Amino acid sequence: MPIELQVIRASEFIRLDAHEHLDVAASKEVLRALVQACQKRGLDCAMLDLRALPVPARPLFTMTELAALVGTFREAGFTLQQRLAILYRHDVHGGIHSFAFISRMRGLHVRAFSEFEAALVWLSEKSAGPVPRRAPGVPIPITTRTGGGKRPRAGATAGIRGRSMSNPVRRRKR
């Protein structure tokens, strides 16, 4: 039976614990300090532990402010090869997941986790690198099934409601 053993030393990633809520300016400074700590130690993995934070009565940051935090994170030097795991206990207002989503939309490897073990496993995985982008104008093949479980005929391009693009509108005879 094959067994895979991975040893992760505490020195292989940076962990930052937060115990109180910060405003936007202070949060930007924390993100800059996190990136600098990774650069100084030559590390590609970081964990931001927000489990000790109390649940706020209302959202602390707007979507614009979250996007600005992501921008600061990138400007500070967080690269496409680095990973940030955000550990949380409660994300009632969705701010943590929104930060991770905006980060991924900008090409960064950021994920939110409610379990320490899952975050640690993700940080220990080999990074696949940035997702390659298709050149503009290159078609992306799409296959769909038409009604009744039948497959489209060979060479047909699926259109709206399973109709062929060569004849997108069929008229009824009266």
Quick synopsis:
Helices cover 29% and strands 11% of the residues. The protein contains 4 helices and 4 strands.
Known CATH architecture of the largest domain: 4-Layer Sandwich
State the total count of DSSP E strands.
4
Kindly report the spatial arrangement of strands forming the biggest sheet.
1-2-3-4
Count of DSSP-assigned helices: 4
Please estimate the helix content. Answer: 25-40%
Shape: globular
Overall domain count: 2
Major sheet attributes: 4 strands, parallel
Overall pLDDT score: 77
Low-confidence stretches: 3-7, 157-165
Gap between N and C termini, in Å? 69 Å
Q: Assess the beta-strand content as a share of residues.
A: 5-15%
Strand and helix order: EHEHEHEH
CATH T-level topology of the largest domain: Purple Acid Phosphatase, chain A, domain 2
Task: Quickly give the structural class.
Answer: alpha/beta
CATH-wise, what's the superfamily of the largest domain?
Metallo-dependent phosphatases
CATH class category name of the largest domain = Alpha Beta
Output the radius of gyration: 23 Å
Question: Would you write up a description of this structure?
Answer:
The chain is α/β, with parallel strands linked by helices and 174 residues long. It folds into 2 domains: 10-124, Metallo-dependent phosphatases (Purple Acid Phosphatase, chain A, domain 2); 140-169, no CATH class. Helices cover 29% and strands 11% of the residues. It has 4 helices and 4 strands; from the N terminus they run βαβαβαβα. The chain has helices at 24-41, 63-75, 95-105, 116-124; strands at residues 14-17, 45-49, 83-87, 109-113. A 4-stranded parallel β-sheet has the order 1-2-3-4, sandwiched between helices. The radius of gyration is 23 Å and the shape is globular. The model is unreliable at 3-7 and 157-165 (pLDDT under 50).
